[in-house]
Amino acid sequence: MKGLQALFKIRETYIGIAATIAFQLIFFSIWMTAYDGISDRANNLTIGLISEDSAVGQEVISGLKESLPFATKEFTSIKKAEKDLDQRHINMIIHIPADFSAQLQAGEEAKIIYSINQANASLAKTMMESVAKQATEEVNHSLYPVQQGEMIKAFSQQFAQLPLEQNTALQVQDTVASTIMGVKDRTVESTIIKTNDVKGFAANFVPLMVIISSFVGAMVMIMQHQQAAEIVQHTVSKWSLFIARQLVNIAVAFILPLLTIGLMHLFTISSNESFFTIYLFQAFMFWAFLCLAQVFVIVFGNLGMVFNICALSLQLVTSGVLVPNAMLSDFYHRVASLLPATYGADGYYTIIFGGSSESLIHNSSSLAIIIAVTLVVATVAVALKRPKMEQKLSATTPQ
């Protein structure tokens, strides 16, 4: 009992209990509200449509455009469609080849080509593969009577050429039988191309793992540095302390990527990007995490850790790793654009799975902006705070 009484005389005991409760409340509130109604926003995902066949293929595209429960975008160039897919502007390409009608008329299996970018949220990839199978079934269902009509037309032409003799009935029966047997219930097959595919199931979780480990590490580091700052703030000027903390942040941010890249090599996570590119991107991402975690504790003190818990949950929800950003509500979609995890996850999709280097440049620029803004806010907060050294002197000066 004495030990229990001693613990409850210390403020940190209550803080620990409050933190546990806060984690539960914050995570449940953010995750449940962010993912509520996800299925109703499936139409925010975009599918690219392109038909190089001007006959039946164009009719198929028109039918899919009306039936698909997603936003659609028609392309006239396959290269432009592939570029948009590579940059994650669209989630899948449905491509009708130029020989589509010719294959059907010849009684052969026509093909629809589906291209799905694997450098995307798990939910989006699963949904697109399901849509590809469903779309093929719908096309087969709609084209079956069309092909029947074509066969009947061909039969009529053959019947008109038959001589009017006693064996006409037998010839008609044979012609009808061969015509019906020539009609297939599946006239179209699907070909699914997975672009930017990577071998190894674990590689799919690298963006999420890097986000979690980097931001949680940044939170813990900033929390410890805040406690250290509170110990020495009576003996060191506020600006010296602030500059020293920034130097430590920069040093750690530019040393940590060596460990990250080393671990990726250790677990055989390969990338087409250069060592220097990955190094700089990871450094900017971790620096942005440190600056974001730091600004809350500088502005709000120890209470800032509550804001960091909120930031952690928000970034996991809105980063686009588990669920595409396009399927989030407008509020969470706007929040995602303000958080570094959104750009970190998108950049790591390019690093791990491949894609356009323009994406890495854009994401690095966004991280640099976040770093600059949070540093400005932190600098202003420090400028407005009264130095602890002056508080100590004023407290000891006799009135």
Fold and architecture overview:
This protein is an alpha/beta fold and 399 residues long. It has 3 domains: 1-34; 39-195, abc type-2 transporter like fold, CATH 3.40.1710; 201-394, no CATH class. 67% of the residues lie in helices and 8% in strands. The protein has 15 helices and 5 strands. The chain has a 5-stranded mixed β-sheet with strand order 2-1-3-4-5, with helices on both faces. Helix 3 (56-67) links the parallel strand 1 (46-51) and strand 2. The longest helix is centred in the middle third of the chain and has 39 residues, at 122-160. The chain is elongated, with a radius of gyration of 31 Å. It starts with a helix and ends with a helix.
Q: Tally the structural domains.
A: 3
Largest sheet: 5 strands, mixed
User: What share of the residues lie within helices?
Assistant: 55-70%
* Proportion of residues in extended strands: 5-15%
| Number of E-state strands | 5
What is the molecular shape?
A: elongated
**In what order do the strands lie side by side in the largest sheet?**
2-1-3-4-5
- DSSP helical segment count: 15
Determine the structural class based on helices, strands and strand pairing. alpha/beta
Global Rg? 31 Å
Gap from first CA to last CA: 46 Å
Mean pLDDT: 84
Query: How would you describe the oligomerization state of the chains in this entry?
Result: single chain
Low-confidence stretches: none
